[in-house]
Amino acid sequence: MKRLVLALPALILAVLPDCGPGSSSETTSTPPPPKTVVNTAPVTVGFGALGPSGGYVNGIWVSVTVCAPGSTANCQTIPNVLVDTGSVGLRLLSSSLTLSLPSVTDSHGDVLQECVQFADFDYVWGPVAMAGVEITGTGEEALEVPGAAANSGIPIQIIAASPAYPAPSSCLAMPTSPGVESDLNTLSALGANGILGIGLFEQDCGSYCTSGSEPVYFYCPSGVCTGANVTVQQQLWNPAAAFGSTDTNGVLISLPSVPATGAASVNGSIIFGIGTQSDNQLGSAQIYEVDEYGNFPQVTFNGVTYASPQNGSFLDTGSDALFVSDAASLASKGIVECGRGFEGYYCPASTISFTATVYGANNVHNSVPFSVANAIALFNTGLAVFSNLAGDSGVGPSTDYMDFGLPFFLGRPVFVGIAGSTTTYPNGYWAF
């Protein structure tokens, strides 16, 4: 099984149309009628595009439709896109995309590239293009970045598009735990046709990349890549924050619970907006404001305090398990790490119950119970959805953190409040 941890560390150029077929916008004498907007998109939790033989457990999947900017006909629907609350922006494999989209370039015609490394040191690399984005079937559309020209599209990443320059070494951090850096630039490696990042922020890098202080965006004239300063409008945008509707302040992930033995698959929903419609009210959910890094300021677990940012902890549908502490620190509780090709997951002799305490920047805290089962026993069932799959996040207290992955969301509606959408919680928040 693939171990996937798609969480990002906290972190106007010319837009020239490609010359490929279908890149021109259609012209009509009568504008089309406005779409009916439904703020709920169906999602499925299961193996994903590669199925049980090559996919991974606890993937949450949605379909996304992309269009050439300004067009309602020059469009393509991409299935099996991974929903990720731990990152921001739409990223599509070039192998999944037949549509020609306009590239973002500088004044010399060099295309803007992006390198994104996730919390497990895997990375994706590819150019930035402009597209109109719809969450398929909802009518929720991101047709331009707020403040930009109407129907100019939002920036998205095309993973592994030609020309295939090597990813710059400056964007790849050395891992703090055993393992090697690897790319997720193919379907077999990623296990998905793309990633829909609908996390806590409007853009994926913000002010860190406007000054070039973070090695994320690059231009590569003659194949030599150097870091680029990019405005927030040029960066990948959270599609949910760029919708033309009023549902732009966050999302609600709603998934059913599963038995302790797992399930073959489950169906749920992404509900866009928070408090904007009758189906996305906070109700009794407790709000936990995140800190400036997009983390819980503090989590305590097994007598250890994990403090942000060094040991930041977070919620992340893009992680397939609960990645908590390390096997050595939990050995006295009966935790052992799996072997036989399943390293990184936990394989206790029997299921063990734990409790962590999460703290919000708004001075609230509560206990979160969870269980850890034997990962190999779970995988051997042939099922795809587990609430008690867990593994290590580091190799010791100095490198450990708490990543509450997809299992956390099963049977627990979770709100993701986008930073800047409310003055009460300016950093953004989670609520559950």
Quickly give the CATH architecture of the largest domain.
Beta Barrel
Q: Biggest sheet, strands in spatial order?
A: 3-4-12-5-10-8
Q: Unreliable stretches, pLDDT < 50, 5 or more residues?
A: 9-30
**Which whole number gives the mean pLDDT?**
90
CA gyration radius, whole angstroms: 21 Å
The proportion of residues forming helix, as a percent range, comes to under 10%
Number of domains: 2
CATH fold name of the largest domain, please?
Cathepsin D, subunit A, domain 1
End-to-end distance = 29 Å
The CATH first-level class of the largest domain comes to Mainly Beta
Beta-strand level of the residues, as a percent range?
25-35%
Number of helices: 5
Overview of the molecule:
It is a single chain. This protein is mainly β. The chain has 2 domains: 213 residues, Cathepsin D, subunit A, domain 1 (Beta Barrel); 157 residues, Cathepsin D, subunit A, domain 1 (Beta Barrel). It has 5 helices and 27 strands. The strands form 4 sheets. The chain has a 6-stranded mixed barrel with strand order 3-4-12-5-10-8. A hairpin with a 6-residue loop joins strand 13 and strand 14. The radius of gyration is 21 Å and the shape is globular. The relative contact order is 0.18.
